[in-house]
Amino acid sequence: IHISNEQELDALVVGAGFGGVWQLKRLRDEGYNVKLVESGTDYGGVWYWNRYPGARVDSAIPHYEFSDPLLYKEWSWKQRFPDSSELRAYFTYAAKKWDLRKDTLFNTYVESATWDEQESKWTVKTKDGPTLKAKFLLLNTGFAAKRYTPDWPGIESFKGTWVHPSFWPHDEPDLMGKKVAVIGTGSTGVQLATDLAKVAGHLTVFQRTPNLALPMRQVDYTNGDQEIPRPEYQSLFDHRKDSFSGFSFNFVPKSTWDDTPEQRQEFYQSLWDKGDFQYWLATYYDMLFTPEANKEAYNFWRDKTRARVKNDKLKDILAPMEQPHAFGCKRISLENKYFEIFNQPNVSLVDMKTNPIESVTETGIRTCDGTVHEFDIVICATGYDAITGGLTSIDIRGTTDQTLKETWKDGTATNLGMSVSGFPNMFFTYGPQAPTALCNGPTCAEIQGDWIVDVVNHMKVKDLKKVEVEIESQKAWAENIWKLANMSLLPSTKSWYMGDNIPGKPREPLIYLGGVPTYYKTLEDCAKEGYSGFKLS
Ligand code: NA7
After folding, report:
1. Residue to mutate, 190, 382, 385, ligand 1, most ligand atoms under 8 Å from C-beta
2. Residue 501, ligand 1, Cβ within 6 A
3. Taking each helix axis from N to C terminus, what angle separates 84-97 and 18-29, rounded to the nearest 10 degrees?
4. Which of 94, 219, 257, 260 is least buried, going by the fewest C-beta atoms within 10 A?
5. Largest CA distance in the chain
């Protein structure tokens, strides 16, 4: 589409993943003049960018889709955990059903946004594209928008192919028989390694911290039968708001020690067999909160996992006898026979904890023990400046000349995980201090997105120009975030939930740990009280 320079909008939505697409649809249905801008060339957000072999969502459908019957009544998934290409096809389908393309500008990277106090509007500059003006700036840049690659010396000297998985080359590298490295064992590294072990001549996985990954239990739906019948979908979507993490399951109201050891084993086993995140998020309520309960969960995981690996040394690296960190306080991944790849002769594992990467050479990677591991291709699955990076990489200036990045230099501050004092008429979804990353994307997109649309409607009805966060409510929200985190084991563990993965990033809980039901109620109460904690003028 063509958008003329200085076009004035009711709202500008940034980012065409679940969050942005939902807001464009909802605001347009309400009759607003709204546009969506996206730096990629199509819809999908993380699914647009992540095309590496094995890329797949680890939230089961139908939780991981929009709740609009217009979409779900006709759409059939091929698998319980769809892969990235199927998710892109779903976005294409949604865009067609909702007729989104006429209001979406692709290939458009937002460089800066500046608040104009006189006009009560945002001026948004795009790289090599139009400058737009909008009453509301709605950022849906996602939690994994800014890639992170550690600055190991020598990367530029590497003569083979060096790739971050979210920039997977369109002219697919031929990996058959090649010497391949996967650095990092987060969800991306685990998925990649599982797939590449089937084709690589030799695959070397570089692990710093064990991933306490759980069996996914994929289900094939290609025969046309989805597990849950369509008529049950609506109540299931409604129940997303009643579950801690936006699924249909929840923690059980029982402590780990309420059961006998035999009952506990049986319960753990039943969760294990169900797959999905059940062993993480449908377990005893005290698992994330008390070290002993957490250790018990770890021990079950450890014994199950060690039994899948043949070599004793590898068992100790992948699933150590001593608990490496609190179970579930680093993002758990779902796997499909990941641990078994280490029984193959063409797969080896480097433990970066005891033998870190020292540098990159022309031919490969030199570890601190002096070995140079030679590769044709190195896949650097080292993650993202998670949760805040997508927002802070835009030059956003509100009522003062200070950017959002500078404002958050010493620590993140938001109200309700959606707005910031000094940045009027600006909201974001799936960002810091919200249930982000513990709650699946579509659930958050709808809960937060609907609330934002209600604010926009409220202001229209009351003929208001400006909504800003009151500093006191922002301070109270930050205290709440810390209080909830300190009740849990989250701060005991190094993870991107705590900002630990990026050098220099403040250490703080970036996620809200109160669970979706409490979060949802807080949003509802705020709206009922005429948006308490916000100043409307
Ligand atoms: P993650 O989860 O951040 O994983 C990154 C991996 O890279 C992880 O194993 C890290 O080890 C490792 N890493 C990062 N920096 C380094 C350095 N400097 N040295 C060695 N190893 C390093 O990113 P993903 O892309 O896998 O997943 C992102 C999210 O997408 C995921 O959580 C899901 O929500 C979907 P560490 O664990 O920090 O020791």
Report:
1. 382
2. yes
3. 10
4. 260
5. 69
- In the numeric block, the tokens 């109160």 are attached to 514
* Alpha carbon of 453 to ligand 1 centroid (Å): 34
- Strand ranges (E), 287-376: 334-335, 347-351, 357-360, 364-367, 372-374
Nearest partner of 446 among 25, 13, 11, 6, judged by Cα: 25
Residue minimizing CA distance to atom 29 of ligand 1: 187
Verify whether ligand 1 is closer than 6 Å to residue 331 (CB atom): yes
| pTM recorded for the entire structure | 0.97
Say if residues 290 and 330 touch (Cβ distance below 8 Å).
no
3-state SS string over 461-501?
Answer: HCCCCCEEECHHHHHHHHHHHHHHHHHCCHHHCCCHHHCCC
Q: Return the amino acid letter for 307.
A: A
What is the chain's pLDDT, residue by residue, as a tens digit (537 residues)?
Answer: 666 666 789 999 999 999 999 999 999 999 999 999 999 999 999 999 999 999 999 999 999 999 999 999 999 999 999 999 999 999 999 999 999 999 999 999 999 999 999 999 999 999 989 999 999 999 999 999 999 999 999 999 999 999 999 999 888 888 999 999 999 999 999 999 999 999 999 999 999 999 999 999 999 998 877 778 888 999 999 999 999 999 889 999 999 999 999 999 999 999 999 999 999 999 999 999 999 999 999 999 999 999 999 999 999 999 999 999 999 999 999 999 999 999 999 999 999 999 999 999 999 999 999 999 999 999 999 999 999 999 999 999 999 999 999 999 999 999 999 999 999 999 999 999 999 988 999 999 999 999 999 999 999 999 999 999 999 999 999 999 999 999 999 999 999 999 999 999 999 999 999 999 999 999 999 999 999 999 999
ipTM above 0.95, yes or no: yes
